[in-house]
Amino acid sequence: MRLLILGGTVFLGRHVVDAALARGHEVTIFTRGRHGTAPHGVEHVIGDRADVTPLQGRAWDAAIDTSGYDPAQVDASSALDIGHYVFVSSCNAYPDWPDKPVDEDSPTWEDGEGYGPDKAAAERFVLARGGAVVRAGLIVGPHDNIFRLPWWVRRVREGGAVPAPGRPDRPLQIIDARDLASWMLDLAELRIAGAFNGTAPIGQTTMEELLRAADPDADLRWIPEDKLEEAGVEPWMEFPLWLPERFEGTWHIGTEKAQAAGLRTRPVGETVADIATWLENGGEAELDEWRSEHRPGKMSPEREAALSRLLC
Ligand SMILES: NC(=O)c1ccc[n+]([C@@H]2O[C@H](COP(=O)([O-])OP(=O)(O)OC[C@H]3O[C@@H](n4cnc5c(N)ncnc54)[C@H](OP(=O)(O)O)[C@@H]3O)[C@@H](O)[C@H]2O)c1
């Protein structure tokens, strides 16, 4: 298959490229050339999504779009000569999420601006052209430039008393970028259309299982949510993967439709082990300023100690 990847050099896209090459596809990537490079055997067309002229006059059997945020740009790229278009969206396309549980029948943003409304507007162009839309949950794995799960893996493996948020048995659902990549290739190859939530089934793992995968003997100090809130802990940014439980939908994303369409997820222990290896091999050096505003900062020992005192 001749496959166009819009993106492909940082995190999710990079795994799509690797999986596509492993399956023997002929791969073209389209990026500005600012982040990362194309592996051997991949055609790299340099350009900005604001102007897809360099892609005109050519044809691909399928495209996987990992870098679409602007609806007009997704309109332009999905109008190219492409057999089947797979667009990476987000659960933020649902106005109800993360406040309430969602599935693919939940309404998506109909107006407004910003990440979620823009993804929803971009989705409509893709769906109208018979493509597939994948509303990803929390994407994890090696090369994660937002660094949410790596933040935890690094911290737990540093040792000592590790403050941990809320309930140890709180269920979570995450998606390894490699599983998402592989399944999106299936959607492209089989020309499956429609909208899907792209994450693991509800209840896939728990916060404790995830943290213990980084070190089974970790000294985890679970701080109840009300104490975290009293202390003004910033959800998601100070403690990645933690939103207060009143955001009922956070880890209640229905995935039956995606599972029926073939999405399979590896055990979280495998993902955590691979992130640990990536970190040991200096993976953090890949991070640059791009998107650093979304990245959780390292927690200071003083802040950790202050949080641990909340348990006394
Ligand atoms: N991380 C999560 O947990 C999460 C959750 C839900 C959904 N998502 C979605 O998953 C996708 C994440 O993808 P990723 O960033 O990991 O993909 P990626 O394809 O690995 O990286 C982004 C690529 O886009 C290229 N790019 C950025 N701006 C561009 C532009 N204006 N024109 C052309 N190329 C451009 C970058 O290269 P250059 O900079 O060199 O151009 C880079 O190759 C996004 O669509 C995001 O909304 C993520």
Automatic annotation (TrEMBL):
Q: Sorted alphabetically, which InterPro entries does this protein's record hold?
A: Epimerase_deHydtase, NAD(P)-bd_dom_sf, NAD(P)-dependent_oxidoreduct
An example Gene Ontology CC term for this record: cytoplasm
Q: Which GO terms describe its molecular function?
A: aldehyde dehydrogenase (NAD+) activity
Which positions fall inside the NAD-dependent epimerase/dehydratase domain?
4-53, 75-188
For this protein, the record's PANTHER family field holds: NAD(P)-BINDING DOMAIN-CONTAINING PROTEIN-RELATED, PROTEIN YEEZ
To which species is this protein native? Solirubrobacter ginsenosidimutans
Superkingdom in the source lineage: Bacteria
What's the protein here called? NAD-dependent epimerase/dehydratase family protein
